[in-house]
Amino acid sequence: MSKEIEKYYNKIAEEYTKQHGYGEQLSIGSLKKFIKFLPLNADILDVGCGGGQDSKFLYDNNLNVLGIDVSKEMIKLSKKYSPETSFKVLNVIDLPSIKKYDGIWCSRVFHNVSIKEQDNFLKKLRVLLKKDGILYLTSVVSDKKEDYDIFDLNNKITKKYLMPKSFKDLLIKHNFKILKFKYWEGKKGMEVFAQK
Ligand SMILES: C[S@@+](CC[C@H](N)C(=O)[O-])C[C@H]1O[C@@H](n2cnc3c(N)ncnc32)[C@H](O)[C@@H]1O
Predict the structure, then answer these.
(1) Which of 12-16, 17-21, 44-48, 136-140 has the lowest average pLDDT?
(2) Where does the pLDDT of residue 94 fall: very low under 50, low under 70, confident under 90, or very high at 90 and above?
(3) Is 109 touching ligand 1 by the criterion CB < 6 Å?
(4) Host domain of residue 101
(5) What is the pTM of this model?
(6) Contact, 90 vs 99, CB < 8 A?
(7) What is the CATH number of the domain that holds 88?
(8) For a disulfide at 130, which of 26, 50, 100, 189, Cβ 3.0-4.6 Å?
(9) Alpha carbons 85 and 74: distance in angstroms, whole number
């Protein structure tokens, strides 16, 4: 699956960052809340950092940030946008679990993780967090009374839709304590702050 994700985001990197990255300011409120949950000089992993705008915000607020993304084009843009921040081309699943983080920021990524793969993905995020570490995660809200994946045949990527209860239950199943849940982007999206 990650090969297709990589190809897709390599193709749309420029367009995506122009439209949803730099200048959009959508995540600023949530980033500020995230920082409040963290200790001073915390170690942060930005999973699926895209063009690096959120990594830069965290770095500028004195946090130690590593931004990772499977797309090398996204990482190229990130490095150009914020040369002082650390970025790596990497699938989070392949990140060694030796180093642990105080916080994981994972914004607008989880909808590309299929229902079948989501347990594995969350297990990995949990392992990468320190005890009491904070996870920020977003998802797309289902417009039906069920969770479902749509497979985009052209781009060969999944878009997943979750009911709010399923999203919360999933985090609880993975032993996270939900600190805050909120809809965002109208009711099309949702976000949680959760603690390990
Ligand atoms: C919709 S973009 C979001 C980018 C950024 N977080 C934002 O909010 O603007 C999703 C990004 O996640 C990356 N991605 C998806 N699955 C990933 C994984 N398993 N490991 C690392 N990056 C991943 C994609 O390459 C893409 O750049």
Answers:
(1) 17-21
(2) very high
(3) yes
(4) 2-195
(5) 0.98
(6) no
(7) 3.40.50.150
(8) 100
(9) 14
